[in-house]
Amino acid sequence: MSKDNLKFSRIALAIFFCVTILDVTTTHAQSTRPDSEKQLAHDIYEEFIEIRSGFTTGATTPVAEAAAARLKAAGFPDSDIALGGAIDKKGNIVVRYHGTGARKPLLLLAHTDVVEAKREDWTLDPFVLTEKEGYFYGRGTGDDKAQAAVWIANLIQYKKEGFKPDRDIIVALTADEEGGGPYSGINWLIKHHRDWIDAEYALNEGGWGESLDGKKISNDVQVSEKYVINFRFEVHNKGGHSSLPVPDNAIYHLAEALDKLSKFGFPLKLNDVTQAYFTAMAKIETGPSSDDLVKVADGDHPAMERLAAKSPQFNATLRTTCVATQLEGGHAVNALPQLAAATVNCRVLPEDSADYVQNTLKQIVGDDEVSIKMTEEPSAGPASPIRPDLFQSITESSNKIWPGVPVVPMMVMGATDGKYLRIAGIPTYGVQGFFFDRNDIRFHGRDERISVQSFYEGQAFLYDLVKRLSR
């Protein structure tokens, strides 16, 4: 048996093991924590949401300081709380809850920066936590301040209970996940304070619960992720007076290039993790797409095309994607443009190289006037091993809250700080227990939201899971 086949067999075995556990009859316990714990999580959540920590215009240090104040008020000593960052406004917090030391620590990670949000674009104020019609609205409600708030609230509860874990539990809330760059909190910690966060493995964002039309489908656990490449499409021109237009126009060159990009799709394909994901989904879903899910798991390309056309999530799971996200051009209303440029954001399958993506874009555009350059050096991270012990614990905690909802490994379509931890040798798993409708994912978009019930159920799930992994 080849290494690839052996690897996939192990993944398939893990899925079978997890799905089999779900057949065991369980008693459906209360799905949320007591009201006092819910109130604490809500208050921390509200405080975090209402701190403007936008990647470009905000600061994460006030979030770190707010978390530190909560922890100190709960009795955590200064010696167990560390604050710091690459610059003053990009602060991180790391807190350690001591256990017996029988096992290596468990790291709980979340980021506190958010994508920018303009009030005029939103129905509600993005920097006010608003509860409306069963949802919490606000920038960061899903990405990623819900998990940040829950980690802190649950850690405070463990201390209140006198819980004695068999390992240290470390919570790290970090800066600049959304934009990375020189102030990335996780990279700063890895480089300067690896000892603060060194752990057997980490739990992070990047996995979530999938629901569709009100029905919970699966509780997904991220074991791998795409990586990001940003390209700058740029056209330079001598310009001139707008009263003397010529066909050689920088904006037109760029527009034609982007039009070609909009009509192109990278090849559809499977890797070990996505094949495992679709194999599991084929056993779970019973709707009109169920037959295609079975075929996709077997590598059927026409079925891949049909699924990709039906669902942005499936499309992004099956291929590398590139999309224009920013535009600039021209310098005066009465002058021919001397510059036209666009940012093209690519989310790349781990097995696709940066050179392959860049060369493909150049072939698609087919215009030497359009320069296509990477804006930074990209790097792909390895997948985390699918540990049967970890997946068993996740499944048991999940089944306690949502009986019969399978736990499924996934490759996240976006990118997270988990990549940097994996590269540094700390396996990382995206697991949250917050459920989102597959067709209503609002991360980074207008009116970001999370179900109120889902927030509190996620709190209960993560509370149970961390305890289960620490005793």
Instruction: Give the distance, in angstroms, between the N- and C-terminal Cα atoms.
Output: 37 Å
Side by side, the strands of the main sheet go 1-2-6-3-7-17
Class by SSE composition: alpha/beta
Count up the helices. Answer: 15
- What is the general shape? globular
Average pLDDT metric: 93
What's the gyration radius in Å? Answer: 23 Å
Main sheet specs: 6 strands, mixed
- Could you list the spans in which at least 5 consecutive residues all have pLDDT below 50? 1-6, 12-28
Helical content, roughly? Answer: 25-40%
How many beta-strand elements?
Answer: 19
**Percent in strands:** 15-25%
Give a short summary of the structure.
By secondary structure, this protein is α/β, with parallel strands linked by helices.
